[in-house]
Amino acid sequence: MTSAVSAMKGDELLKAPSTNVSQLLAGKLPGISSVQESGEPGLDQASLRIRGSINAVSYVVDGFPVDNINDIDPADIESVSVLKDGASAAVYGLQASGGVIIVTTKKGEKGKTKITYNASLGASLNANFPEFMDGPQFAYYYNVAQMMDQLASGAIASDADYVPYFTKEQVEMMTNGDPTDGWDNVNYIDKVFGTGFTQKHNITVQAGSEKSKYFVSFGYLGQEGNIDNYSYNRYNVRANVESQLARDFKFTVGLSGVLSNRHTPGLGTGGSDMGSETGWLSIANQTIQMHPYLPETYNGYWTASQKKNTGLPQSPLAAIYESGYKKTRGMDVNANMALSYDVPWVKGLQLKASGSFDYSTSMNKNLNTPFNLMAYTDGQWKEAVDPRGVGNGVSLGEGTSYYQHLTGQAGASY
After folding, report:
1. pLDDT per residue over 360-388, tens digit each?
2. From the centroid of its chain, how far is CA 358?
3. Interacting residues of 412 by C-beta distance below 8 A, sequence separation 6+
4. pTM exceeds cut of 0.85
5. Cβ(237)–Cβ(218) under 8 Å?
6. Would you say 216 and 238 are in contact if contact means Cβ atoms under 8 Å apart?
7. Half-sphere exposure at residue 211, Cβ-oriented, CA atoms within 13 angstroms
8. Distances (CA, A) of 343 to 242, 354, 414
9. By the 8 A CB rule, do 67 and 330 touch?
10. How many C-beta neighbours within 10 Å does residue 159 have?
């Protein structure tokens, strides 16, 4: 069975920079594959699969099942084990058909009080991106393509008959440094995608004696996305206490809590976002649809290019700064405890009772603010509106979800 079980120490996880545990496990243990669909702050978790299974992975933390492990501070982890086949995971039942990842958090150690502080700062940016044409290049190749179309259709007899869509004067205005004339040379990829920053801080306190040991941890994760108005903050606290109540009785208790706040514009980035803005209305898609010869603003409004197949205006800067916001606040609390009794008259027999209580709540607040645009289409400026539509006006939606789960276990081991 040993080939179906892999394990690693928690200290190994800290050798690579990451914001959550699922990212760190990728490539660290054999048999685990991962796919990360987004780099958005707070949504950059990886989807894990064990040995290519189509079934989801099950997670166990300190002996109790949990939904995910991404909110655990990596600095709190003592060890990680992966059960990769049916025989090794059988004890966890049918829900473990996709494999099991077991996380054990740190406990107190006998000795003097030990205080540890860890901090890291990182930057995030697009590692690879296509090189897009600037304004004059776009105008040149647009004219060439249009001329070839007209030659092929017979609309013109020769190159000399072609009337350029973009004139020489317009191309010159793209580079004259005066965007008020309605022409500019803007790299919208650089305008939208910048450099994001991540900071992590963790402080732990460990101590113990013959009778009792404790471990306490406080952690903070702050992320600023490489697109403006995307941020995520997470606060972790954990306490594990072990106490020898009597010669044969041992009591353990673990408490953990997570507070999180995520903020985004009203329109999503794409990637793992869900909803109508995925793809054709996402900020990423609107950015690559934006024409480089358009100034950022015109007549006091953000500018937009008109999409040919849908007629919808594309304006990534308006999507970032004018579309409203989505705010999510989450709180997760877990308490677990166990009492074990070593039966003195039967050597090696231990009776154990344990329980765990999980409580989580999530509060969402979404504000959609329609905006006006100036779109350049068919050779002239026209007023346009938010591609989501303006029929509903300003809309505000709020929602709250709650979850609680109680687990109890009792057994004997020999």
Report:
1. 999 999 999 999 999 988 888 999 999 88
2. 23
3. 349, 350, 351, 352
4. yes
5. yes
6. yes
7. 3
8. 19, 17, 10
9. no
10. 10
Cα–Cα distance list, 12 to 21, 29, 74, 75, 157 (Å): 12, 11, 10, 10, 71
Q: Would you state the structure tokens that stand for residue 49, as one six-digit string?
A: 């699969």
Cβ burial, residue 389 (10 Å; 0-12/13-18/19+): exposed
Angle ∠(270,262,18) on CA atoms, nearest 5: 80
* Dihedral over alpha carbons 25, 26, 30, 32 (to 10 degrees): 100
Can you tell me the mean pLDDT for 283-299? 93
Q: Could you report the per-residue pLDDT of 26-51, keeping only the tens digit for each?
A: 777 888 888 877 888 988 888 888 88
Q: SS3 sequence, the chain?
A: CHHHEEEEEHHHHCCCCCCCHHHHHCCCCCCEEEEECCCCCCCCCEEEEECCCCCCCEEEECCEEECCCCCCCHHHEEEEEEECCHHHHHHHCHHHCCCEEEEEECCCCCEEEEEEEEEEEEEECCCCCCCCCCHHHHHHHHHHHHHHHHHHHCCCCCHHHCCCCCCHHHHHHHCCCCHHHCCCCCCHHHHHCCCEEEEEEEEEEEEECCCEEEEEEEEEEEEECCCCCCEEEEEEEEEEEEEECCCCEEEEEEEEEEEEEEEEECCCCCCCCCCCCCCCCCHHHHHHHCCCCCCCEECCEEEEEECCCCCCEECHHHHHHCCEEEEEEEEEEEEEEEEEEECCCCCCCEEEEEEEEEEEEEEEEEEECCCEEEEEECCEEEEEECCCCCCCCCEEEEEEEEEEEEEEEEEEEC
Instruction: Give me the pLDDT at residue 18, please.
Output: 78
What is the Cα–Cα distance from 281 to 278, expressed in whole angstroms?
6
Length of the chain as a residue count? 414
Tell me how far the alpha carbon of residue 315 is from its chain's centroid: 24
CB 353 within 8 Å of CB 338:
yes
- What mean pLDDT is predicted for residues 188-214? 94
Cross-strand pairs, 59: 66, 101
pLDDT in tens, 46-89: 888 888 777 888 899 998 989 889 999 989 999 998 887 766 66
What's the chain's average pLDDT?
Answer: 89
Q: Tokens at residue 365, please?
A: 């607040």
Question: d(Cα 208, Cα 96) in Å, to the nearest integer?
Answer: 36
- Residue 356 CB coordination number (10 Å): 21
Q: Give the residue from 358, 313, 342, 293 showing the smallest Cα distance to 136.
A: 293
